[in-house]
Amino acid sequence: MLNTQSDRLDYREMLSPPMGYKVSFAFGTTYSLDLETLTAMCAIIGLNVEADTELSESPLHMLEAIRRASKKLLVFCQGAQIKVPDKPNKLLPLLESCVCEVNLKNKKSFHPKTWFIHYTSKGMPDRYRLVVLSRNFTFDRSWDVAVRLDSASQGDSALRQEPSTGKAIGGFIRWLIDNTSAYNPDLRKKHKTIEKLIDGFAASSWKPIGREIESIDFIPYGIGQYFNSNLFDDFNKLFVISPFLSKGIMEQFAQRRRPNADCTLITRNSELPKLNGNLLTIFETYVVKDIVVDGEDQVIESGDTQQQDIHAKVYLRTKGEDSELYIGSANASYSAFQGGNVECLFVLRGKQKNLSVEKLKMDLFGTDEKKNPFERVNLSAIPKPDDETETMRMETAIREFCATRKQAVVSDGEPYSVTVKIRPPQTDVRLTLSPLMKPNAQQVSEVMVFPKLGLCDLSEWYEVTAKLRGQEPLRRVIKIPTEGIPTADRDKALYSDVISDRNAFLAYIAFLLSDDYLSAFIESMKKAKGEYRFLNMNYDSPILYERMLKAAANSPDSLRDIREIISMLNAHVVPQDFLRLYEQFEKAVKL
């Protein structure tokens, strides 16, 4: 069920299309977002290759991944929770239309972690996939959980759903497009695409996912609609995994236990001060061992250290013969269940004999205490609470800045200037703002002018930094709608910067027409030291010609893609011999 050795999922497996299908459109939700993760995600959505292959380090090949993925990908994230890249990728401006920030009122958070994916195949019925996770779209190494559901075809057996499940799925998707800004044509087009998909996701039946699971339900929180949940009903056994806690929520669970109830909690060491002695007596409480938390330090080579800890949100409650397993984004906290955060939980129901607390303990703890990654909390060694007041002040200042109305305008002519107008939030935290693609930090004021920007420096991505004396600065990326960006010219400049000569162009085309992108990438790396020639060479000409013939017969859209690429590049980059041959294919296929 949740065996850390055998029940593993990775992002490629979760998002890759069924055999014979392709991704038509994918949209996801996350609290925090890493732009480097988003770039790597394009390798999965656009090329169906692992996000951590060497391919993701190649600008030439990632350009094709972004070109393919950016048209059919949208991520909704909490405003002011976009991580600043260690080294901004020059292709990041091409991902502006792939991100929608969500800013809720009254300090509420947008916290769900989901994927909704629509797959298509010529002559075949559409397919849908729903993934509910506890994981954000970052490279964080903490331990998370996920549930993946695939739509059932006509005649397939399907999981039983609650009557409200489809309504809850549709209601959540509708809330997303009703509560985010589509301020440019690309975002409006994607919102309309999502709107057309609502009925498909809401009406889908879902394939079985194991003999333990008899029925399912989807429960969103914080969207203005109530969907029934049994999570806080009385129970005989309860197993909670939650990295963050509120004392009041844990007391509510404790109050609902039946006599002789079995109560277990896994949390982070930093959360223990929130629990009083009574709760720590009621709940058999565990944390991840220090050797596991610190173990990641040994494998990070960049100079930074990454600790791993529990980040999963799991609730397994049993009553009589019945069990319910809740997986998703909601911590055992006031903010998640009563404070108005937007969250998503998926409910898997079955019989206790198949879906039991004992089985979950065995999966997580094992039988060898030395190999058990968790340890029982010593009640006499509860750490003192950390004082995070200053960090929270900086976090709040950035969130308020992100939520306030802002406008940026680009001046005509290169070098460009960008003027940002804003009503700064009232705070004693010092805030600075800078264009992400060309750092030039200025203290936040009502009017800021950023001069001497090149065409490729223009972007809606900005970096905001919060500073308090004696504290490490807090840095985030935000989006500011920016008028006057010559987007077509900017994008052409970015393409030309990557595909800068004939060798790069021919390598790109060979990659674009490939059946196996990873093999094509490896092939191009082997040839990287040589020169690409066309028609008068012994190796590349037959391969390109063969791939163009295959594309003409099986995937004419690939040939249309070539025309799009040619239109984005300087004329001297495209060999005339290739162009003449390509135009013959255009006529033959009647593109």
What does it look like?
This protein is of the alpha/beta class. It folds into four domains: 11-208, Endonuclease, Chain A (2-Layer Sandwich); 235-381, Endonuclease, Chain A, CATH 3.30.870; 389-485, Sandwich (Immunoglobulin-like), CATH 2.60.40; 499-589, no CATH class. It is built from 17 helices and 25 strands. Strand 20 and strand 21 form a beta hairpin. Helix 15 packs parallel to helix 17 (576-589).
Structure characteristics:
591 residues; alpha/beta; Endonuclease, Chain A; Immunoglobulin-like; 4 domains; 17 helices; 31% helix; 24% strand
For the biggest sheet, the summary is: 9 strands, mixed
Placed side by side, the strands forming the largest sheet appear as 9-10-16-15-14-11-12-13-17
Cα radius of gyration in angstroms: 26 Å
* CATH class wording of the largest domain: Alpha Beta
- CATH fold-level name of the largest domain: Endonuclease, Chain A
Principal-axis shape equals globular
Instruction: Provide the number of structural domains.
Output: 4
Helical content class: 25-40%
| Content of β-strand | 15-25%
Helix count equals 17
What would CATH call the architecture of the largest domain?
2-Layer Sandwich
What is the number of beta strands? 25
Q: List low-confidence stretches.
A: 297-305, 529-539
Distance between the termini: 50 Å
Assembly category: single chain
Which structural class is indicated by helix and strand composition? Answer: alpha/beta
What is the arithmetic mean of pLDDT? 89
